[in-house]
Amino acid sequence: MGAGRDTLAVVIRTVDFNDNDKMVTLLTRDYGRMSAKMRGAKKPASKLFSAASLFCCGDYTFFEKDGRFGVKGCAIRRTFFGLQSDYDAYTAACFIADAVDKVAQEDDVPSGLFALTVNALFVLDTGTASAGTVLCYFLQRLLYIEGVYPSLSECAVCGSAPPFVRFSASHGGALCPSCGRDHGGIVLDEALLCALRLLAHTAAKDLGSLDINADVQKRLSGALVVYLEHVLQRPLKTARFVTGEKRSG
Ligand SMILES: [Zn+2]
How far is CA 93 from CA 66, 96, 120, in A? Predict the structure, then answer.
């Protein structure tokens, strides 16, 4: 029997397992990403039923056996069940959980990722800001926290100063008029750059006061999702929920 663990955590993935069990993946505050079995959690009468649901946040107690973890108990702080009544908020939350699952390493999660994830879910759950705004905020902060923020102060190809006309995920950021002509990417205008600057200086609790129009939100989140996928070197299954694009595979 190994040592147990106690930590604040949020469920970012669940898979049914056996007749009544669940395997859950959690982003924990203290141990990075953890996978754990929750025995009997599919039974509505189980004391772990709510604790095994996607987005549940609480103080989880884990036991370790043969190098694997199981959940012994959970003092729930917040279930974020309100997300289920708003399609846009719910799909944004699913994308956030998916992105965190792919980005977070076991035992090696940058500080700030747990708070970012829970804060974003909280704003979506309470509806104090639009799902599009929360998504842009989450992506902007995630790239910063992970240390993979795109180059936006100089051209990502030739290093020249602004103005920029394109944003290229594969080249790692903004492109000057000359490089933009040769290297493609999406149109980068002052509205997108301005939105990024605003997001960088706004706390999660103040997102409701941000005024970023729907078209800019859509273009910005679309660009940052493609950039994140490029950094991860893998597609995110839930990306089409938030970009509205149909993708194969
Ligand atoms: Zn250039």
Answer: 33, 5, 8
Residue 219 CA, ligand 1 centroid: distance in Å = 22
pTM of the model: 0.93
pLDDT in tens, the chain (249 residues): 567 899 999 999 999 989 999 999 999 999 999 999 999 999 999 999 999 999 999 999 999 999 999 999 999 999 998 898 999 999 999 999 999 999 988 877 888 999 999 999 999 999 999 999 999 999 999 999 999 999 999 999 999 999 999 999 999 999 999 999 988 889 999 999 999 999 999 999 999 999 899 999 999 999 999 999 999 999 999 998 887 765 443
Sketch the domain layout of the chain as residue ranges: 5-79, 82-243
184 CA → ligand 1 middle, Å: 11
| CATH class label, 82-243 | mainly alpha
CA of 185 to the centre of ligand 1 (A): 13
In CATH, what class is 5-79?
A: mainly beta
How many whole angstroms from 154 Cα to the centroid of ligand 1? 8
In angstroms, the CA 36 to CA 34 distance is 6
